[in-house]
Design a protein that fits this description.
The complex is a heterodimer of chains A (499) and B (203).
Chain A lengths: L1 H6 L12 E5 L3 H4 L6 E9 L9 E9 L10 E4 L13 H8 L2 E5 L14 H4 L13 H20 L9 H14 L7 E5 L3 H10 L7 E4 L8 H22 L1 H6 L3 H14 L2 E2 L3 E2 L1 H12 L14 H9 L5 H9 L21 H12 L5 H8 L3 H8 L2 H9 L18 E6 L7 H10 L3 E6 L11 H12 L29
Parallel strand pairs in A: 4-5, 4-6, 6-7, 7-10, 10-11
Antiparallel strand pairs in A: 1-2, 2-3, 3-5, 8-9
Helix pairs in contact in A: 5-17, 6-7, 8-15, 10-11, 10-12, 11-16, 14-17
Chain B lengths: L2 H13 L6 H14 L6 H26 L27 E7 L4 H5 L4 E7 L4 E5 L11 E5 L3 E4 L14 E7 L2 E8 L3 H8 L3 E3 L2
Antiparallel strand pairs in B: 1-2, 1-8, 2-3, 3-4, 4-5, 5-6, 6-7, 7-8
Classes of the chains: A alpha/beta (499), B alpha+beta (203).
Chain lengths: 499, 203
């Protein structure tokens, strides 16, 4: 039987390239994040697997051991954070300890320390120039697109083929790493945010290579991030208005927040506000999406708790302090388009890696009718989509569309746990439930009071995940702790001004 | 057991010890088979030889196709280095401590940190933390590491102080009192909890 199976497998030529994994000391900025056992290595793979003698690339691998307990057999693998974002390994030991497995992280091709980087310092040079301008400012847009073009040209001169940094290539890197580590099946896979697109592609391309997977704040391959973003943001705003109305202090300070929102959008559409930053309707929407997608209070000072006050102030023609700070401090075209706006710099965000997945694996497959329906007649959402700087950048990034299979739903027998925050403006609980309904072993946990990081702010969903992982073919049990989670809105005058 | 693993292990055993010069083996086996063709049990021998030939030819290639990788480092490759920071120093302050964090500071108010905190510093470097009921953030999985007079910790690294470097404090202990002084911590909330007053030994 073994021989029969072997005969069906295409045999590579003797000249075929063999990926290599070599262990080396960690880069210093990675090393300093650890207080416990870990090791780093470099996986060398082909940039383009169809060219066995072509350019090779090096990807940083970081293994982390559980602390205070012996690891159980098997390794877990994480696809990292949102598309293009850099890496923080500081919480990896905690994750390894909770699941009692050695955790493996791969700094995906084009990102972080992996070589080459597809970061675009050419575009970073324009950070901070958006604050005083209106949405869709043509001059700034031209500067950005020129920077993207210059970035691409530089990378191509250096031998980089931007198209080879796509979902398919990352899935194959992951499989090469699995074999290099002599792992039979991953004990678990995980992803955070939009990196779920890598995870799903891996499940599609390499079925049966994982025992279970949990996805924090996922997006799904068959819906592009623009369409999901519109739907998720609209849903998150509705959740915000409802939650404020249900909160005694918030309802008292900002009654009928939905009406205030509509008033603010209408007012800003007619007459933008100008202070240290300029605020128009699309920028208020982007800033609100930023707060709803917030990954922690360190995000330029504007978070979910401050949003009612911020909206109320805008409806009255004022720009709140936290909103002004968010408009001034976040990188160019980050707030409202990308979930996380910290960690700027070459290793903080890889614009090229992000653009390749957007432009090659998503944009060509956007269902324009579905997107138009999602936008509706809302002028702020229309502007958000029509002025999308990254979709515009696809024209200069110049990567051909991927095989359409990457944009189809993935069917998998692997047990999945999908965790989504109530206010997440980047991940849709409705889409998650629709996906789960088509799979034999997939469950959705919606986490009250949370944004785009369902596992990030409470031990409650972490505990639910840990317990599920012990028996992943069954639904998550004992989710009662979720009932206690709620958001406390700030009504302090200094946070936006009481009405 | 998965097909992948069965193939890798089963074919690996079959292929073990063979000379990688497959062509030489092939010619040798074919010649041997021809010489024995006149023997009485020629047909059985030929069948066996065919199995061997097939194994010799297919097994390495099948493994290649399955893995496309060098799974073991070549001879002379350096032994993988595993960084395992020492935990010897942790014993110096291992134990349980408590303190009350006063309200007032903006970081304390916005993160609901005011109230009674208990930390259990375990010798292996894990840190059990009990917070006031008002704090709903992540406490599990915290670590620490003690140097001669330094203390580093991952407390709050997942939420309140996420995306910031692991901080360093100086520690001093006088009798029952343990005090942390920040050397390098950009997270005001953590400074407020750890260093705005002394910790007292005992649960």
């Amino acid at each position: 039987m073994l021989l029969a199976a072997a005969c069906t497998i295409a045999a590579p030529s003797r000249a075929s390239f063999r990926p290599r994994l070599a262990w080396e000391p960690c880069p210093s900025d990675v090393e300093i994040q650890f207080l416990s056992r870990h090791r780093c290595g470099w996986l060398t793979v082909l940039q383009d697997r169809s060219k066995p003698k072509g350019k090779t690339i090096r990807l940083l691998v970081v293994e982390t051991w559980p602390v205070g307990v012996a690891p159980l057999p098997g390794r877990g693998f994480g696809f990292g954070t949102n598309l293009g974002d850099g890496y923080s390994h500081g919480s990896a030991p905690a994750g390894a300890t909770r699941l009692r497995r050695i955790n493996v992280a791969l700094q995906l091709r084009g990102t972080g320390h992996s070589q080459p980087s597809l970061a675009c310092p050419e575009a970073n040079a324009f950070d901070g120039r958006e604050a005083g301008r209106l949405s869709g400012d043509a001059s700034l847009r031209e500067d950005f697109l020129s920077a993207v073009k210059a970035c691409r040209e530089r990378l191509v001169r250096e031998g980089v083929d931007p198209a080879r940094y796509d979902l398919e290539s990352v899935a194959r890197d992951t499989e090469d790493l699995r074999v290099a580590l002599e792992v039979d099946r991953w004990a678990y896979l995980n992803s955070y945010g939009t990196s779920s697109r890598y995870l799903f592609e891996y499940l599609r391309a390499f079925p049966g290579r994982a025992q279970a997977a949990y996805l924090d704040s996922p997006q799904f391959p068959h819906v592009d991030e623009v369409t999901t973003g519109v739907k998720a943001t609209r849903h998150a705003l509705d959740q915000l208005f409802t939650a404020c109305a249900a909160d005694k202090d918030c309802a008292e300070a900002y009654p009928d927040l939905a009406t205030r929102w509509a008033r603010a959008i209408h007012r800003l559409k007619r007459q933008p506000l100008k202070g240290t930053a300029t605020l128009d309707a699309a920028k208020l929407l982007r800033a609100s999406r930023f707060a709803l997608g917030g990954d922690g209070p360190e995000q330029a000072g504007l978070d979910l708790t401050l949003l009612p006050a911020t909206i109320a102030a805008a409806a009255k023609g004022r720009i709140s302090g936290p909103l002004a700070a968010a408009l001034e401090d976040t990188p160019l075209y980050c707030a409202g388009y990308r979930p996380l706006c910290v960690g700027v710099g070459d290793r903080g965000f890889s614009l090229g890696a992000y653009l390749t997945v957007l432009c090659r694996d998503q944009a060509p497959f956007i269902d324009r009718a579905a997107l138009s329906t999602a936008v509706g007649n809302d002028p702020a959402f229309r502007e958000l989509v029509d002025d999308h700087p990254y979709l515009a950048a696809c024209k200069v990034w110049g990567v051909a569309p991927a095989n359409p299979v990457v944009a189809r739903p993935v069917h998998t027998e692997v047990p999945l746990l999908l965790l989504i925050g109530q206010f997440d403006s980047y991940s849709s609980a409705r889409e998650a439930r629709q996906v789960a309904a088509t799979l034999p072993r997939a469950w959705v946990v919606q986490v009250p009071g949370q944004t785009h990081n369902a596992l990030g702010f409470s031990d409650c969903p972490i505990g639910i995940r840990n317990a599920w992982f012990r028996d992943p073919i069954s639904p998550p049990q004992n989710t009662n702790c979720l009932d206690k989670l709620r958001v406390s809105f700030s009504t302090a005058p200094e946070q936006g001004g009481k009405p | 057991m998965s097909l992948d693993r069965r193939l890798r292990e089963g074919l690996g055993r079959i292929a073990a010890g063979i000379d990688p010069d497959v062509d030489w083996h092939l010619r040798r086996a074919v010649r041997g088979a021809r010489r024995r063709v006149v023997l009485r049990r020629a047909s059985a021998t030929l069948a066996a030889a065919a199995v061997i030939i097939t194994s010799l030819v297919i097994a390495p290639r099948a493994l290649d196709a399955l893995s496309s990788l060098t799974r073991r480092p070549p001879a002379g490759h350096p032994v993988p280095a595993v960084a395992e920071p020492t935990t010897v120093g942790n014993q110096a302050i291992a134990g349980t401590y408590r303190r009350s964090v006063p309200a007032g500071d903006l970081d304390v108010r916005s993160n609901h940190l005011a109230g009674r905190w208990i930390i259990e510093l375990r010798p292996e470097g894990t840190m059990a933390v009990t917070a006031p009921a008002s704090f709903t953030g992540v406490l599990s999985g915290s670590q620490f590491q003690v140097g001669a007079d330094t203390f580093r910790t991952t407390l709050f690294i997942q939420d309140v102080c996420s995306n910031l470097p692991v901080p360093t404090y100086r520690w001093t202990r006088v009798g029952e009192r343990l005090k942390f002084t920040p050397i390098d911590d950009r997270c005001g909330a953590r400074v407020a909890v750890l260093a705005s007053g002394p910790w007292v030994s005992g649960g």
